Fold this protein.
Amino acid sequence: MRKLLLVLLWPLAAGAADVDGVKIEDKTRVGSSDLVLNGAGLRKRAFFRVYAIGLYVPQKATTPAALLEQPGTKRVAIHMLRDVGAEAFTEALADGIRANHSEAEAKALEPRIKQLGATMAQIGEAKKGMAIALDWDGKATQLVVEGKPAGQPIPGEDFYRALLRIWVGDKPVQDDLKKKLLGG
């Protein structure tokens, strides 16, 4: 009987991660690519819970270098736990990029950061409960809000890697979140 119960419950336990009450699936699909959850965690700022985040890749990686250099489609899935204005959301991403790049590298990324900011400004606010994804399709970064593409694709793998460094770079936005996104 115990074995039967374990067999019946196993699919429920293996199906997703729970981050502060947010269900983060262990697999997702971007375009025609199947991705696996590399890690998931909670972004906090001071004592505020800001968002639950999951990082999806073709193959799990446990180091930043392996993750950043891994070819193929990727997704950063963010589930907002509080309202954040578009300007604050974009500025937080820009700060994370600047922290992990030289001044010259950050300056080269600025036009694409502004493009992402303009798309966020059209959305107006990252509202509590909103699902936001940053997808890399092998050619460009696409902002996806509530399952629908928002704005124009942003070219350049260097830009997507810059976004990933916000969470897994040398100076991540939050150390314990970096560990969780790397599967720790």
